[in-house]
Description:
The complex is a heterodimer of chains A (130) and B (177).
Chain A: E1 2-7, E2 13-19, E3 40-42, E4 46-52, H1 54-59, H2 62-72, H3 78-87, E5 94-100, E6 105-109, E7 113-120, E8 125-128
Antiparallel strand pairs in A: 1-2, 3-4, 4-5, 5-6, 7-8
Helix pairs in contact in A: 2-3
Chain B: E1 4-12, H1 20-42, H2 47-59, E2 80-86, E3 92-98, H3 104-114, E4 119-121, H4 122-132, H5 145-157
Parallel strand pairs in B: 3-4
Antiparallel strand pairs in B: 2-3
Helix pairs in contact in B: 1-2, 2-3
Amino acid sequence: TVGCVAIDSAGNLATATSTGGLVNKMVGRIGDTPVIGAGTYANRLCAVSATGVGEAIIRHTVARDVAALMEYVPDLSLEDAAARVVAGVPPGKVGLVAVSAAGEVTMAYNTTGMFRACATEGGRHEVGIW
Amino acid sequence: MGWAIALHGGAGDIPRSLPPDRREPRLATLRRCLDLATAALRSGSTALDVVELVVRELENCPHYNAGVGSVLTADGTVEMEAAVMDGNTMRCGAVSGLSTVVNAVSLARLVMEKTPHIYLAFHGAEAFAREQGVETKDPSHFITEANKERLRQAKEANRVQVDYTQPIPKDDNSRIG
């Protein structure tokens, strides 16, 4: 799976995710990526793209849950919201990247690793796997 | 506040012993995507345009599991899917079951922008792709030798695998229970 989240200088948030799914999946199987709110979600508060085992991500409505925490828990940071959601999914099942309307960036996962990268206008620049 | 961007190329059981020839091409693609994205954001591109731009690049990289390089179904076919969402308007588009569309993410965006719907799948999505004139290729274009081998191993082990599940040594069944 691949995905990207961004906020532009005008404050617009967006997310996109694309995948081939799982090796040896059943023909006709649909994963989390195209299920809005599961693997992909954005609103005026944040944008999220997830990766991992689609069935787990759908069950836990991962992307929407991050946005919901941002919406309903006062003063919660994006990093804490993402960490809380990822921690609630069985280990080895999920990773996500997210950006918030405040320009926060987080990349959280409970797998061994996640190919990931981020950059901000403020100078943060990261590329990593583990 | 300013702009910000994050991208991923999949999560999974990625061993720290991943050989350089499998690690470096993927890292190089991440760096290239980051450069593309930051340049676009600095020049005033919208977040929506940038996420589509980046995901198209990742789809075109055979080392990642989307577009060319997509993993295979039990029948040895590709069934690709993608989604896009605009945070301000909450407009969104999604596609599933694609076997010929080169950049599924762009078709998802067309669903968002050109239809009254959110989600098109399988033959309906393929027909919409033809109607919109997006680039398509024979399904064989998306299938790599590495993924044929991964499917063979997964079938042998009788399991499904996330993106970076490692091959199982012939003399080791500890990871399959």
